[in-house]
Amino acid sequence: MRFLKVAACASIIALVPVVATVTAAPDRNAGGLTLFTEIYEQVRTNYVEPTTDKQLLDGAIKGMLSALDPHSSYMDAKEYREFQVQTRGEFAGLGMQVTMENGLVKIISPIDDTPAARAGLKPGDLILAIDDNPVTDMTLSDAVERLRGTIGSQVKLTVRREGVDPFEVRLTRAEIKIEPVKFHMEGGDIGYIRVTSFTERTSDALEAAIKSVKQQAGDKLAGVVLDLRNNPGGLLDQAVSVSNDFLDRGEIVSIRGRRGQDNRRFDAQPDRDQLRGVPVVVLINGGSASASEIVAGALQDHHRAVLLGTRSFGKGSVQTVLPQRESGGALRLTTARYYTPSGRSIQATGIDPDVVVEPAKIEKVAQSGRLREADLRGALRNTDNEANDKAKAPATSSTAKPGADRSNADEKATPTAGKPNVPPGTTPAARPETTALDPNLLGTDADYQLVRAVDLLRGVSLFKKLAAQ
Length: 469
Fold this sequence. Notes:
By secondary structure, this protein is an alpha+beta fold. It folds into three domains: 90-177, Roll (Pdz3 Domain), CATH 2.30.42.10; 181-318 and 334-356, 2-enoyl-CoA Hydratase, Chain A, domain 1 (Alpha-Beta Complex); 361-450, no CATH class. It contains eleven helices and 23 strands. It has helices spanning 33-46, 53-66, 77-86, 115-118, 140-147, 202-217, 236-244, 291-301, 385-392, 406-412, 448-468; strands at residues 2-5, 16-18, 73-75, 90-93, 96-101, 104-110, 126-130, 133-134, 154-160, 167-172, 174-177, 181-186, 190-195, 223-227, 251-257, 264-267, 280-284, 306-309, 317-323, 330-339, 355-356, 361-365, 429-433. It starts with a strand and ends with a helix. Residues 1-24 and 394-431 have low confidence and may be disordered.
């Protein structure tokens, strides 16, 4: 049996059984195998220190696979066991998905509520060294092995981030228990659902979240924000099932390989849309990879949702995991590409959102102490009681988060360093600071992309009401 995967690199992997085929062993004299045998014997006989057959063969296999794409690799028995545990969403480590790019380890995304996220590591960060050992001397498997370790142990990373000098960060390894779905209500009429990864429990957890959102909102549900930012991927069957929770017909994703028998198509099951057409906005960014791109691409192509944010990561390849009976390890080999329902391959290009909104953080700034009409001496009094009461109420920012508790939003916002105190009698105004958003702020009152998504859904809801009149 072999297994198919579409997933984030070096960690969470999709496993779907497919039929295995057996091919004849190649001629040992074909393709330079004679040269390989000669060199193997020379190294084994003449190297300055004794070597084992396993050491040389494992090294040769890993070297051969490293000459292919970043996602093809060999896992020994220990690595394969850890790999199988990770698909269940529980493992020990730092909590980030990584790949190899130009000889450096690149962070696809940190996982919520893990040491990597709490340390402020961000998608696109490049790891230059692990415990002062340059990663240029490592394969991806070697780097991942160094990043792992016992719970409570520390590791030092040297990190390069665009626009800043290289810096060091120390992280303490921990037990990672991924909560694949989180949710809350935005103002009582918008459901916010964040899918952090595609593990074995994601689809069930999503359906429970949708059910809870619908119960809390009742007939006032104006829309749902599906947050796939910093979601590095996971199990293919879960990506298909999650897509089906918003679709009730049509293709979700297709897989095309070099061989015809590797081609597959996954279609939505009828009447599975859990929201029955309620408007959806999907948030994506450069940390949205693989399985999350399958969901985003399917909903975009079927015009089921508006995609908002920035371009996704662009991992559109499929890996097959082939267990090796003799060694107990497994070969992870890229065998196909996947395509969205419209036939798009997003490999190395990613998915462009329908509405581009750069990551930003909402902060408090002081407004000038401008006078309003009601403050002018001798101003006419509004004789309407309701309007008069409204005029007496303190002004609120027009850019504050819709539906949110204003005072709570102000408490969570971070004042700009060096900014003078707010003058008496004025109200702090929320504004976005256009910097890379801290992963810990996703889904909070300081999350500008979420604010824009909520505004968009409320606008759609208002338009429908006006059109119905």
